[in-house]
Design brief:
Helix content is 26%, strand content 19%. The chain has helices spanning 16-19, 33-44, 67-73, 76-82, 111-128, 144-148, and strands at residues 3-4, 7-8, 55-61, 87-94, 96-97, 106-107, 132-136, 154-163.
Length: 200
């Protein structure tokens, strides 16, 4: 059993599932290429229906020529803390797939699901290497495809901040109270045997 702050696992799981969380406070330390490629290597091995591997990652290191483009997509509130991240990553998924034995692409209904599996793999690998990650939904989704050069047939899912964790004191004060691991619903709230039997 592992416990961190308000997190508790009554059923046995590896501690990484409890200890990993999504901070906003980063040191500003740069990420080396080997570490960054290790994150993408972990994402590479994520589960994927039909082996479609629909995930695509577009990244920019802080201070690089492309950093400003990704940073500008963020809403103003997220820009207030992302400025100390080491890298920003856009997760994009391909919405079609040529299935085995076929020659034409058809809709891939699980493209977002598989991309999410790749994101989780990246996040856990980052944690093992001493980096921290936070998925960001607050960005300009209408502008993102043009800014990132994403063609038709692809969907920009999320942005991801990666950095070395810092003390919450580096954040604007209104973020301090939220800079902690969040709890999770108990297992009994989201499992059912045989049929849907959830209150919500």
């Amino acid at each position: 059993m592992t416990q961190q702050s308000n997190r508790h696992a009554p059923h046995p799981v590896d501690s990484i599932f409890i200890d990993r969380w999504s901070p906003r406070a980063y040191t500003g330390e740069a990420i080396d290429d080997a570490s960054l490629l290790s994150l993408f290597e972990a994402a590479r091995w994520a589960p994927s229906a039909n082996n479609s591997q629909p995930w695509r990652f577009i990244y920019a290191k802080n201070g690089s020529a492309h950093w400003g483009d990704l940073f500008a997509l963020l809403n103003e509130n997220n820009q207030r803390w992302v400025n100390r991240a080491a890298v920003l990553i856009a997760l994009v998924s391909k919405k079609t797939h040529v299935r085995p034995g076929e020659t034409a692409a058809s809709p891939l209904k699980n493209h977002s699901l598989d991309a999410g599996a790749a994101w989780a793999s990246l996040a856990f690998q980052a944690y093992q290497l001493g980096w921290r990650t936070r998925a960001i939904g607050g960005f300009n989704r209408d502008a993102a495809p043009e800014v990132l050069g994403v063609p038709e047939g692809y969907q920009v899912e999320i942005l991801i901040a990666v950095g070395k964790q810092a003390d919450k004191s580096v954040l604007p004060e209104d973020f301090h109270e939220r800079e902690q691991p969040t709890p999770r619903k108990p297992v009994e709230k989201f499992i059912a045997e045989g049929k849907f039997s959830f209150a919500e």
